[in-house]
Amino acid sequence: MYLCYLDESGTTQLSDQTKTFVYAALAVPIVFWKQADKQINEIKNKYDIGNAEIHTAWILKKYLEQTRIANFEELSHVERRKAFLKVQEDCLRVWSVNKTNKQLINKKKHYRMIYPYIHLTLDERKQFILDLAKIVGGWSDCRLFCDAIKKEKYSCVKSRHDDMYEESFEQVVTRLETYLKKTTYPDKKYAILIADNHKEKDSKLTALMRKFYEAGTFWRNINHIVETPLFVDSQLTSLVQVADLLSYSIRRFFDNDETEIFDLIKPLIDRHKKKLVGIRHFTPNEKCMCEVCNDNRKCE
Q1: What digits encode the pLDDT tens for the residues 4-25?
Q2: DSSP class of 269
Q3: How many Å separate Cα 123 from the centre of its chain?
Q4: Fold of 2-43+133-298
Q5: Which terminus of the chain is less hemmed in, N or C, by CB atoms within 10 Å?
């Protein structure tokens, strides 16, 4: 049995800055779950993050407040936090003048999201993510399934789905089902989907899975994925947070050709007879020359 953790990166909107929408699923054998969770918590403790949620995009941002603190790198974690919160208070007081209520709410959200990591320098935060990726990339019994859609190209083709979110989810579910069907281990024949609790999307995923159970996806009947997705609080579930890291790093690879984290997690992506079958980079009407597409073409 696999626990399959779902997450996405980027949005389906063409108007935002992201070029790619990514949906990812990390399948973890249930017998390995406790060990995996322990390893993640050990790395969190190493960086004095405790039980804080891993939000990769927020972790890797530049915190300008840190540049205003003299000798920030030489301070203890406690001293860094204290100094940061003082600068934050001063910045909020000045920044809030002549700002709209919405802008102020967004600024406070920014501070709330980065709070668990303000005691770490940018280099330390980058190393934290790299340490996580290195550990996760070494989970040889786990598998990663992913769909990455180049958004500007999606509207140029006919698809069964008007919504690329549904398109990506169907792709990931199909690839997971294919993997489960071909496995020869009886105790690993099934999977349960687990996703972050999101009111708007929970009902959509549930409805889609019910549809897949009844009629299959376009490519396969669904016989090895149990029930509809389970929805959890990502703040309390380390492996959903790991799925966030995976989807983020895959999107950054396709959007910005950032390979450092991607190279560490690439061994997780499912292969069949050397072909990289666990991931699709959807760029219709365009011969993509990225590493993933070239990898697939070598095996054709």
Answers
A1: 999 999 988 887 889 999 999 9
A2: B
A3: 21
A4: Nucleotidyltransferase; domain 5 (3.30.420)
A5: C
